[in-house]
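Researcher: Quick test of sequence recovery. Tokens follow.
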């Protein structure tokens, strides 16, 4: 049992390594491989979407009668004894809930304080506190003829940010029913691609891996590597050097694969990624020989300035080369 537990933990650790290092987007510092766990969740979200869009389907009717007979699919919680099929659908439904949004028609099906119905980036739900407000449905925020919003009522119960966002919502030209749409797509229809991108964005936001203010973790500095006109193996080497995952003695020593991190060539310093390609006397001699045939930055620009030293060096060099 213990051996099996060790195997499971090792597998989860390896999958986590793949997800953080290899499955990130190229612009986020990864290799752009598919995260199979997130892709599988996106496929299951498509099944949940079909139950939502086609409620008159026989399969949808059976699942509704068994798991949410008096509710809505988006309000469904895990039951006490679900089948494996329903567990899979619920796994996809948890991702689906992050991307669905209600489109306002007559407003009679949309709950003001619970449903996502305000189209904006951070949250599609109301940010104002409910307080003593007794309004429940979006229809109660519209005028009697449903032609426009009741601005006085909006200003009474919602903060200015919510009032501004609600005022920008396009109302249906005629009295139509509310319906659920998929926000990541402009046409409102679900796609596995957009669901996978949403799952990756959520994972990146939770892990906070990238040192960038971009919510997707994208950094323009990585494009200097991936767009470079060199053989693919050179781009992969530069990526490994930027992520500090070269098989140097320093990295092997951290994983207890080497007895010492000292460089075998110079025998003076630890063999880090920067030492192996820049500061080692052998690497410096090679760089001097290369400078006789190619224009290289001076040694001052090769100094170690942090974990992003190579990205910053490439950015400075390309800016100078374009002048």
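Model:
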């Amino acid at each position: 049992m213990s051996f099996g537990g060790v195997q499971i933990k090792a597998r989860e650790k390896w999958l986590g390594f793949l997800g953080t290092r290899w499955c990130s987007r190229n612009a986020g510092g990864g290799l752009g491989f598919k995260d199979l766990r997130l892709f599988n969740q996106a496929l299951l979200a498509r099944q949940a979407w079909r139950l939502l869009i086609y409620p008159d389907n026989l399969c949808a009717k059976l699942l509704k009668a068994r798991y949410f007979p008096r509710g809505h699919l988006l309000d469904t919680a895990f039951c006490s004894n679900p089948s494996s099929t329903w567990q899979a659908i619920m796994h996809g439904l948890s991702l689906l809930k992050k991307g669905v949004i209600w489109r306002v028609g007559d407003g009679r099906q949309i709950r003001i304080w619970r449903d996502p119905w305000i189209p904006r980036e951070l949250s599609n739900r109301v940010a104002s506190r409910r307080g003593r407000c007794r309004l429940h449905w979006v229809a109660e925020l519209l005028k009697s003829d449903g032609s426009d919003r009741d601005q006085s009522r909006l200003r009474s119960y919602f903060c200015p940010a919510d009032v501004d966002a609600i005022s920008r919502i396009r109302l249906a030209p005629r009295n139509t029913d509310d319906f659920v749409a998929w926000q990541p797509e402009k046409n409102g229809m679900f796609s596995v691609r957009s669901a996978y991108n949403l799952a990756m964005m959520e994972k990146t936001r939770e892990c906070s891996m990238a040192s960038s203010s971009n919510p997707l973790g994208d950094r323009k500095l990585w494009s200097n590597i991936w767009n470079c006109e060199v053989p693919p193996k050179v781009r992969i080497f530069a990526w490994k050097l930027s992520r500090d995952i070269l098989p140097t003695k320093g990295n092997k020593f951290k994983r207890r694969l080497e007895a010492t991190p000292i460089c075998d060539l110079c025998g003076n310093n630890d063999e880090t990624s920067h030492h192996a390609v820049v500061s080692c006397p052998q690497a410096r001699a090679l760089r001097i020989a290369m400078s006789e045939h190619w224009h290289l930055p001076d040694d001052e620009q090769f100094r170690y300035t942090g974990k992003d030293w190579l990205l910053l060096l490439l950015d400075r060099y390309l800016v100078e080369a374009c002048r």
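Residues 1-9, 11-15, 209-217 have pLDDT under 50 and may be disordered.
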